[in-house]
């Protein structure tokens, strides 16, 4: 294209508007940086996780797994004899609590000779084969050794039941895998962790030539209830899926920042195009084709986007690096325990985000470019025609259609376990509202009574005369306020619901957990009696947590066997909705969490079968409860039923009611005296659990707040930048008004009124839209992502404070732009002989 | 009505320029004076000095009995609001106000009550022949019509002085003729004093007196008009 033409069109954009242009570039950069950083962090976490899973499953073709507590080891012999199986490698997997630490390490017990053929990473590197079988010997993965700060020659003390087991570190295992784990001999592991006669997993290698799918199907039929066979790949995918909703939510937040950046480009471009209206009209008169003008202006946006993307990618890489250093891959949310993520430059996602940045900036420029090209050249050459830009009120139909589509989308089910329709609904509502903004502004302004004072009255006239222009300034602030408000309401509702849930869940005075981490700690029957006999204890209710495989394609669900009050078992459950009255002849009741409804299709009254101790048992779903602790689903049964069916009398947790006048501290002292092993157990009061849970909650959402603060900053910058540009474009008008006898102060008052009115409309629209969007977040996005419901709770106080702060900031912004506009001889702005 | 005594104005800068050099001017009540001059000779600067929009470096300016030198910015603004009307080359009619609202601006600024204002606005619109366009928007009007609106706005608050800076500069000859005739007749009807800056001799011809501004100052125009 002719460079002179390019210069004529773009001239001015890159010289006179440098500050505003830099803001656009920065806004895009911020969005790209956040998006790229989140992508890098996710890739690092999932990549490490999946890589670790691969190392650990080695060359196994199939994996047989069952409840967390294990299945009968007799199954191993059957599998080993199967005609399709070349090697079967039995595994005992224990999440062993490390003595004295609130952390656990996965210990694999393997048969070294069989494991060598299937999962070589799970075999210790020992000088002689005999060392591998030594009962007290354990081999650490390099990552585990580094994490523990221990090595060969040292010891590793872990907890089993409420007693310590000391293991000698005999060497390393697992090559260079980044995952933390330990391996030991299978028989020794069964012994040490009281898993005699049971296995957690059997890894299978099939004979060459046998059909894996067929073998899998055939083997599946021979397995007892609750034990499934799957390809290791599927198991890794299942685990990965657990964190996917969380990761996708983060990605969406980053895209939100990019979207607000795009709106800022839109406002800036819109107003920069308004300023250059006469210039374009002249070029059009001189023969520049309409389409070429649009193309050039969109190219201008692409340049802004490209610059922003380059800056953003670099910043995103730095941000991801810093976040991984400080918080870890799950940003403190606890999904990727045991992984030590490494960040790697990812060309693909870099390309994707760079393209997104450019695309967003180009989209932001498109509407203003079309507006510029549409203006009749002759009219646009007339002085004062700037006011005509964006003055037209378009049909409200597209906006209304989008809003309706958004409302309809909230009724759609999740796609692949993700609330895509929910996000779509929010996007549609937001864009629909933005399209309706000129209408909304016009409607509101028409209802404002005319002020008595001249300056505010004139301000109102100006706003009424050009609602489209006001809307351009409004777009970014409405978007960022609504997103911020919706998230604030959602987070507040979540926090309040969590708090209420904890209160309902924790009625006792003290909670004793056999081990603060892992699944190797438990109270046996003697321990339970000892605990109940501690002086000052009025009553103890025990709980046994277990994990079952209900569906081979889904992660294990948690089974909680609880001592519930016989007369009213449901009083201790945070139930939602109706419960089923008990009828004689019914199978025993099970109360299921909301995730069981969403993921396993359970509902009150349904008869289900649960695999316990190698058999299936009928249960009836008696009610649904809310569970914020186990996203993959949880079931509650009465412990008496569980014991009767399984014979398993151990317990992992105890809720203790104290006699009147006994303090938790006194109880702790009495416990230490009467039951010294309990020193290894974790003792906490409901208050402590609540404080800890809310602290974890707040840490998880800190990232969210960070991303939202970024969106708000972009929104305010957008408002100030676009309002400033509008004011600058109107300098001539102010000059005329000064001629006619308006004082400086009056012009200032007029602009302040306009700023206040625009900010107020933006805030009110943003607040309303944000409220509606929060309902979608709570009832659709959140429910579909995490399968738990929450009660709406609007943080009126914080919202009012936020609104007030934003109003003040927005007005300060507009007054500042007014100052700037009034400086430097507005009177000369009336010069006609240019 | 307007008395300028040895007014000087120069603009500082990399190449300082003396625009007005000891300029004297006396305009009687009800008189219409036209000022001719090349582009850049300082005509607009002179009008700005008379309106109190530029402060002269030296000399005195007395307009409608007020010595502008002693007034501060707010007082000068109030002075303009009551005593001065403007007509610009590019009309400068506010696009977001209706025709009637535009004309009413000076009255609203002066805090005039609505009923009186409405009556005065329709009288002025009738005087400039645009009564039926009162509710229209400026974008619907031609240049000549816009300038007639501007004349109505310049006179609506009965100022003693009307300053017109090249009011025909953006108009075709026919419209220009009409606008000048209208300016002349309305000034007369309202009893206002006018200063008309122009480089059109035809336009200047309708004035009571024609002066020319050069580097040497203001002098009576000697050449042939139209
Ligand atoms: N604020 C200013 N700063 C610097 N120079 C100015 C300023 N205002 C006017 N001038 C200069 O003074 C001269 C006279 O300007 P002006 O009065 O507008 O001329 P005209 O007779 O064309 O109306 C011009 O050369 C102009 O560039
Ligand atoms: Mg001039």
Going by helix content, strand content and strand pairing, the class of chain B is alpha/beta
Model regions low in confidence, pLDDT < 50 over at least 5 residues of chain A: 332-338
The CATH class designation of chain B is Alpha Beta
Give the terminus-to-terminus CA distance of chain B.
28 Å
Strand content of chain B: 25-35%
Please name the fourth-level CATH homologous superfamily of chain B. Answer: P-loop containing nucleotide triphosphate hydrolases
- Coarse shape of chain B: globular
- Straight-line distance between termini of chain A: 29 Å
Q: Which secondary-structure class do the elements of chain A indicate? A: alpha+beta
Structurally, the number of domains of chain A stands at 4
What is the CATH topology assignment of chain B? Rossmann fold
The radius of gyration computed from the alpha-carbon positions of chain B, rounded to a whole number of angstroms, is 17 Å
Specify the helix fraction band of chain A.
55-70%
Helix content of chain B: 25-40%
Question: What would you note in describing this structure?
Answer:
- Chain A is α+β, with helices and mostly antiparallel strands and 834 residues long.
- Helix content of chain A is 56%, strand content 15%.
- Chain A folds into four domains: 1-59 and 236-382, no CATH class; 62-230, no CATH class; 386-506 and 686-834, no CATH class; 510-684, no CATH class.
- In chain A, the strands form three sheets. In chain A, strands 12, 13, 14, 15, 16, 17, 18, 19, 20 and 21 form a ten-stranded mixed sheet that branches. Chain A has a six-stranded mixed barrel with strand order 3-4-8-5-7-6, surrounded by four helices.
- In chain A, α2 packs antiparallel against α22 and α17 packs across α24.
- The longest helix of chain A is centred in the first third of the chain and has 44 residues, at 232-275.
- Residues 332-338 of chain A have low confidence and may be disordered.
- Chain B has helices at residues 43-51, 73-83, 99-109, 114-127, 143-155, 173-190, 201-204, and strands at 2-11, 17-27, 32-36, 58-63, 66-67, 84-87, 161-165, 193-197, 209-214, 217-220.
- Chain B is built from seven helices and ten strands.
- Chain B has 226 residues and is of the alpha/beta class.
- Chain B has a six-stranded mixed sheet with strand order 6-7-8-3-9-10.
- The two termini of chain B are 28 Å apart.
